[in-house]
Amino acid sequence: MAKVGTMALDGGDPRLGGHEGEFAGQGIIAYTRPQMRALHDPSIQFEEYWYYSRQTRAEEDAFRAEDAAHASHGILSTIFPTKSGTGNVVTNGEKGEALVPQTNISDPTRRASVTDEEWTNASRAVRTATAGAVFYLITTDILGPFGLPYAFATTGWGPGVALYTVFGFMAGFSGWLLWHIFMGLDSYQYPVKSYGDLAFRLYGQPCRYAFNLLQSIQLLCSVALIIISNGEALSEAVKFKLCYAVCCLVWALAGFFMGQIRTLQKFGWLANAAVWINLLIIFITMGVAAHSSPLYSASASSAGYAVNPNLVTPDSNGNYPPLQHSAGLPDPSNFGASVNGLMQAVYAYGGAMIFVEFMSEMRYPRDFIKGMWGAQLFIYVCYMLYGLFMYAYQAQYLQTPSYLGIAPYAWQTVGNVLAMVSALIAAALYGNIGVKVLYNNIAVEFFRAPPLTQTKAKWIWVAIIPIYWSIAFVVGAAIPDFSGFTAVVSAACILQFTYTFPPFLHLAYNIRKNALRPDEGYDPSTGNIVLHDTGMKRLLRGFMAGDWYLNVWNVIYCLGSLATCGLGLWAAIENLILIYAVPQLNAYGCTSPLDVSS
């Protein structure tokens, strides 16, 4: 296990001294069978993960070559993902249906009776998602295109296009880094189930805890934000005739049912629908914006007001300033407003936070890269065109979300209703991953809960989902202007998972991988790990061997990302200070924050 301390590679195999992990003192040699190891055993080193990952990748490639149905779908499997799959389970060495162990393999005392085939089948059985499902899951997961026009209105034509392009490409590059690490650390014997598992295998247990905590906070906040924002949208759609607290509670209750979908493959069709709904909202908003004026009455919440109130303040006769476009920053003196606007664009690439969870449920993780780049290209082209179009027609009067900035109330309501459905699907996805992170890292590890493939676990899932959504509702409802608070959390979490952590993890992975010589590695017959040198010498060789330029770039990229995250935090906190200078409403009352007449 490559912890922070062992990055210097200054030790041999810690298991050679005797019995390790949960089975110490039981007379069982821990390295003989992977299923006899603790779920997160710190004594397992990189070389063992690497050995089993190559076996798994070779097996997956063999399965894929035999999977005629998968190969024949081609592009259609991406556009119309199948509803479900059986995973790569095997029986008597041949691919097909197989029983996974029905004993609770989370309990170390019961894993001794599990055969090697049953152990690997338990891992294979949950891997059913396809590249097509991943394409739609990624494009559903992102925060949507409806904040991007606002971003262009606060940054201008040039900076907006340049920054959105750079961040889009780097988000794809980060996805490639995560995929590369996953392919070298995941296996049927030691499956990677979450982002935190990568951190654990490269930097140790404290790093895993930190990653899981940040990811859990962000996912819970994302679900809470959608509950509150959908509540606001519903209150506006019914013209504030329904109590605001009830409007929010409706979506929490809807999550009780939507959250019962457990596998990501089954989410494929819902994600498919969400993408087409978003495209429909885009086309409607563009059409209406091209044939009507902006919603001048809401100028106090527009991008122009955030940049410089004079840009949207009417004169003494009640006439609003004409549309104003900017090649550069609209107001260089208000840099914070531009950074806040830019964050709206950057968050559209926030899906990397759950890329690892997507890969962990894929039948062929090698296909992830195809689905990921396809999704990133779709996000970039469609959303860029939409943002530029809306900026051209509404300029400084753009709202976030953009469909609320069109003047005809009927079309605002159409956008609201469609967006509520799409957002609920996205919230269900966030909740799905959030519950799995908590279940696998708390319930399974500390309370020996059964894996989610077993019947008992399915009933536990049914019970956990309402609890998770209830907590999200309570948290979101209790904090006034929750969207402002979430901006701070997003800057601290989403940007890290997309831009800072991937190069940070890949640097450690590349050093360990490149330092391996042909006659070094893990010997499964003895459990020994053969290394001919240790310490700083090995660390430097791993850094400079092979694609050393990628290691250099990872260092620069990680530091640059940290600086960007710092800027985002500063801008979000400054904005929050301004917001809370005025008393804010929470979602425990009946008055909607959008009801200006109250």
UniProtKB/TrEMBL annotation:
Stretches assigned to the Amino acid transporter transmembrane domain: 128-510
Any one GO MF annotation of this record: L-amino acid transmembrane transporter activity
Gene Ontology annotations for the cellular component aspect, listed alphabetically: membrane
Any Pfam family the entry gives: Aa_trans
Compartment annotation: Membrane
Originating organism: Cladonia borealis
Name of the protein in its database record: Amino acid transporter transmembrane domain-containing protein
UniProt membrane topology term: Multi-pass membrane protein
TM spans (from-to): 133-152, 164-188, 209-231, 237-257, 269-290, 335-356, 377-397, 417-439, 459-479, 485-509, 548-573
Keywords (A to Z) from UniProt: Membrane, Transmembrane, Transmembrane helix
Membership in a protein family: Belongs to the amino acid/polyamine transporter 2 family.
